Amino acid sequence: MQRSIATTFPRSGQLGLLRTDVWARLRLALERADAAQIGLFFITLAIGIYVFSNPSRSGWYNHFVWQSDAFLHGRFAIAYPVVDGPFVNAYFQDIMSLPSTPGAPSYGLLPFPPLPAVLLMPFVAVFGMATDAQLFGVVLGAVNVGLAWRLTTRLTDQRAVAFLATLFFAFGTVHWYAAIISTTWFLAHVVAITFVLLGITVALDAERREQLRQSLAGRIGAGEHARFGPVAATIEQSSLFLAWYRRLRGQVDGLQFAAGFVFGLAALSRLTIIFGAPFFVFVGGGGSYRRRALSAGLGAVIPVALLGLYNVISTGHLFNPAYDWLYQNQVAGLGYAPQGLEGSRDWGVENPRFIPLSSIIMFLWPPDFFPAYPPFCTDGVRTLLSPTCPLLAPSKFGMSILLTSPAYLLIPAIAAVAWRQRLVLGAALAVFSIAIVNLAHFSQGWVQFGYRFSNDFAPFALVLITVAIAWLGVRKLTVALVAASIVVNAWGVYWGVTLGW
Question: What is the DSSP letter of 390?
Fold first, then answer.
């Protein structure tokens, strides 16, 4: 595989390319600038905009701070319900109450994987329950933007393409909204994205190293192997252990193993992300599908096994029972889906019959036009951003990803043209696999702007977006799609903060 499809795939044409002097100077500046400095610029820009977007972070839902505090006190269960003192949590959702005796402390079990709580532990150790988990999410979300820039530069040598794709990820997807909100459910997405971006980048580095290794091997020849081969064979024959070790080591690419391990860590924040594993079968080091899959799989199985061990130790079950308990005891009446799209309670937490219903939210659900529910007006002059008399507002059930991020329309275009390329096929399969599992879930992420579950596949979608922009070129169409995505997400962020979501 070439360094990337994005650097070598033929352009679709030159019509509509940006040719202004301003654009030419900007492109030249990008090419001359240090890549690390551009990455730092993106992190700084994201921190500024993310903090400004939601300056009054309430910390209303901070389950992971309570979980970190429990870990620091040697417990898996959090103190719950706490009704007295400066920090209370009796209003929390998504907690399975544990049996307790009158007068004794009471506890609850969270259904969420523990990685965000683990990352917060140093801060909770210093600041206690006053730890601002939302600020942590804002900063980490900004770091994700820097990591997105780093990833896109692995996909293309065209700085302008990488720049535009990174802008899309930072401000044209619901990652912006997730980062500035960073309450429990959104913080899990932000943390998971960090490790997925890192895992993809390491896999791309492993791919490039494999290409270099094969190139050098072709130039050097087999002289060294002929010189030392007999000695190695003699040593192997004297030790069955060394023979099997050498055989296994020959089947595992170290950098691809690291990519799988880092990717697997993301599942300790959002378990459904593990279904993006097909990407690492097609992309990475190892030189063959089997070696890439084996190397990444061995790496990923370690954190996934640790999650299973954590569940067994903390709950006595391989799969955390808290979520199913919550579904059976708390879901009824919460209104997770629009009327007519609820499905049946008998279907359970995951069921393929939810897929067609959930797909309507993911691809077709509109905003609320002329909203009449309080505190909105029922008459008067309506405007787009009026907090009391709006023309339209986001639906709390979510919105179509094609409305919130129109640049995602580039994905089917590049998939149709280049589906035979390993990079495109692997990324497309990862997006599809994660999306299908999420669509089979009974809830699609209420309350939210946009479709928050799209954060699970956003890093893989970024690969496809970058390749698509490189194929089409930085032209009026691609710039317009990214610009429209940014405008819609800015509108959604405004309303999310205004509505107190």
Answer: B
